[in-house]
Amino acid sequence: MKGKHFFCCAAIAGFLFTWAGISWGDNVWEGISRELLNAKSVALDPDEAEVIYLGTDKGLFRSQDSGKSWRNLFLSKTKKLGINLLIFDAQDKDILYAATTAGLFRSTNKGLRWERIFKGKSQAEAECLALVVLPRAMYLGTRKGLFVSHDKGRSWHKEKGKLGKTQIFNIISTSSVSDLLYLASTDGLFKSSDLGDSWERVFTAYSRENGKEDDSEPEDQDEEDRYSEIRYLAIDPNNPEHLLLATQKGIYESKDSGVSWENFPEYGLLSRDVYFIIFTAESRIFCISKSGVFVYRNLAWEELSLGLSFKKISYISLDKDGYLYACSENGLYRLMPQGGPGSKGVLSKYFITVPAIDEVQKAAIKYAEVDPGKIGDWRRQAAKKAWLPRVTAGFDQDINRTVSKSIWGTSGTNTYDGKHYIGPDDETNYNNKNWGVSLTWELGDLIWNSAQTSIDVRSRLMVQLRDDILDEVNKLYFERIRVMAELDGLPIEDKKKRFEKELRIRELTASLDGLTGGYFSRQIENNKLCKS
Q1: What is the pLDDT of residues 287-312, one digit of tens each?
Q2: Which helix (H) or strand (E) holds 522?
Q3: CB contact at 8 A, 72 and 59
Q4: pTM of the model as a whole
Q5: Helix (H) or strand (E) holding 365
Q6: What stretch of H or E contains 485?
Q7: CB 261 within 8 A of CB 239
Q8: Which terminus of the chain, N or C, has less C-beta within 10 A?
């Protein structure tokens, strides 16, 4: 019955976390999009912190109360209008752009009215994925080519050559170097030092069979079906020469504006497939990988999405107050990164689902029946013995009966025979019963009694046993954490070592279950239930 009660509590807690926010430790994700699902992009009003614009696969929505309520902003009569990107104009904060599956839209009054300024000549051209708005020109990336406008969107021309055919993932410029542009596409990473008048390719990566890579052109492949390992590019706002490129095979770093590249640290990232990465104004780094949302701190990646039960996260953004927003298949979620597990150190993420060490110790002590309070109970019970008297009871019975009979009279005449009478002349019966109870107190036992000696012996054995159990629990518990960290540090391709580490984790879990009567695994499952 007790187990059922706990399960019900866990289920209710899990429901509350899902409805109002997902919390574990200090890491709190708050779901703020209500019933809106499949969030793809978010834009935060630069002037009003309470105003949030959310793009989904079914349209654009705005909240003016930090997500408590949402209003639909109709952009088109199209039944399904996916919003791929939302950005504010850096020169005019009243202008908001929406790159959609049906063209590029613009609002000059923060979403009250909209106009379509680009629609493309095909479905592939109409799907807009990236946008940069500069004083001199606008650069629009679509699923099939780069388009440029020099008159604020009134007319567009398509880039010639390779950049007019490739799929554009993102376009980015630097604020300190106004003429420098970067473009991440299916055909590689391109760089322009003259605002798009000319482009050079500075990075190339294609998927090849058997894990091979080369820079050769896949001429026989359909342009729209071409696949690249490149995902997204980010530039450090405080150092325009510092670039990070997210790819399917990890993150690449350049410290010389794309001239040379090297692998960026992957420790803690869990998956090398990274498809979104951003720098903050303080040069902090966040990314989205196949495993979730991560922040780079202390030369390692720390996961921030441990409190989220879903997998698909498509976009992240930070506001000026430090809140992190994540667009996911379950809607829009918000997190204060300073309160996340990263604030407690690199290893804190490994303690999210496991019970605390002191709880495991308590469970082991209880299971082995070596609780210190047990010795105290023994001593108190032994001290009370003196107040209980020794009871002695006795009983005896004396039964004796004496009967004496004699002739005591005759009668008769001379003619007739005489008669005589026989009868008792005395009869005595004895029936004596005796009993007694005696009570004896040994008041000296209040000070010391022989039971204390036995308790001392047993207590020493119990303390030794308890210390041995706690020592074993501590070793197993923290070794399990170390093996988990080592597993995260192994390359995904090293299947043999990963198998050995995973097997060791299961072995350590079984040992902890043996010392706690299964408490360790049950608590992990309960914690996972609360998370979901």
Answers
A1: 999 888 999 988 889 888 876 766 68
A2: helix 519-531
A3: yes
A4: 0.59
A5: helix 357-368
A6: helix 450-489
A7: no
A8: N
